[in-house]
Amino acid sequence: MMLTGIAICFSVSAQIKLEGLITAGDYNFQSWDGEYLVYHNLGQTIIYHYESQEMELVPIYEPIKIRFKKGLYFKMTETNKWQMHRFGEETPVFQNEFDRIGYWIGDQILAYEQLSGKDRGYRISWISEDGHFIAQHRLNDIEACLGIEDYFRYTSLDKLVSLTSSVKSPYREGLMPLQNPDSRLWGFFDLSLKQKVSTIYDEVSFFSEGLVAVKNKAGYWGYVDTLGKEVIPLKFSKPSGYFSDGLATFRSKENRIGFINKSGEVIIPAEYIGASPFYKGKTIAYRRDRGRVGWYFLDLEGNETKGPCEICEFRQSKNFYSNEIDQAPYRVLVNWVDDGMGMFLIGRGFKIFDHQNKLLYKAENTVFQDLINGKFFFLEREPLPRTYTPKTGLMDMNWEFLIRVEEGGF
């Protein structure tokens, strides 16, 4: 392994040693969110709180299954159902026992339960990342708002999940998309399931800054507001993005990406192969034309700042959090804006560059993961000598291990 940067040696002082496994080949087996370390060991998922140094063990092998986020997680009951828990608390967040849980989408997660007694039937709960119910809807109420009359088609849990899997995202700005299973068309409904946008669209995105991208039956995209009023004409032949900082991506007929404002005016021409949403006035975009190749940082007027490398790649986005901020290359942009540095994948190694494209750190045959608050997961991987124990754990920007995670006892 080769390392360059401010420090080239691993510091062994003031380390916390934890027993467990860090898996270089699967990002879903560990996570660092700036506060909690989540990994696995001996058939269990381990949640470790960095500041308090407290730990909780969950008897589930794959960390992704507990749907951990911001101290909240699910674990199985004795009846093989799921209950939500909060780190450090013995009592479940809710008494509800769920038959199935979805994945986090942004700041919300969907959970499904079968009710008995006089309330017999199925119910779906929308749960926020702070552990509160945003909404709870019974299946027959969802069917009614969609105009479904044949209730018996959706009387099993699998059919229920199949129906509500068409919920592309949870409630955004108080509205949720639902698809009629018969017409296959989409509309939007509020927290009480009152329809706000007619069910007339072939495809939809999610609301952001008061607008949502929709596609009509003719195959053209545009934007409507929260009352269903067409704000930007449906004239784009390619899918459009969501608004952030007042701009959204659009694609030209040549499949190049540019940005429009809320009046539908082109602010940044479609010259890029890939681009992230804007974040605090910046986006990261890739271009390959007329001798200009590589990643560029753009401001709201389209002024470019050359990125650090032409052949940089990004690690694949993991499923731990289905959140826009964790999708490549958005995470790199967030780090670059908030922390003044970005993490790039090059070959079998990673490099970290600062705002001036200065190389801060380089490591080959390694994996860097989850650069948040100046700390990140560091994983060595093959090729390594057989007698060498790979170094894995949480590291800071001085190449000092704060936490070592090692297989076996100490």
Give an overview in words.
By secondary structure, the protein is mainly beta. The protein has helices at residues 139-146, 157-164, 330-339; strands at residues 3-5, 16-19, 31-32, 36-41, 44-49, 55-58, 72-76, 82-86, 100-101, 108-115, 121-128, 133-138, 176-179, 186-189, 195-201, 203-204, 211-215, 221-225, 230-236, 248-251, 257-260, 266-272, 274-275, 283-289, 292-298, 304-306, 341-346, 349-354, 359-364, 366-372, 375-380, 392-396, 401-406. It has a domain at 1-33 and 262-410. The protein is 6% helix and 41% strand. The strands form 9 sheets. The chain has a 5-stranded mixed β-sheet with strand order 2-33-32-31-30, with no helix packed on it. Strands 1-29-28-27 form a 4-stranded antiparallel β-sheet. Strands 3-4-5-6 form a 4-stranded antiparallel β-sheet, with no helix packed on it. The longest helix has 10 residues, at 330-339.
Low-confidence stretches: 1-14, 316-322
Report strand %: 35-45%
The radius of gyration computed from the alpha-carbon positions, rounded to a whole number of angstroms, is: 23 Å
Profile the largest sheet.
5 strands, mixed
The number of helical runs is 3
> What is the average per-residue confidence, as pLDDT, rounded to a whole number?
83
User: Order of strands across the widest beta sheet?
Assistant: 2-33-32-31-30
Shape: flat
**What percent of the residues sit in helical stretches (DSSP H or I)?**
under 10%
Q: Kindly report how far apart the N and C termini lie.
A: 25 Å
In terms of quaternary structure, what is this? Answer: single chain
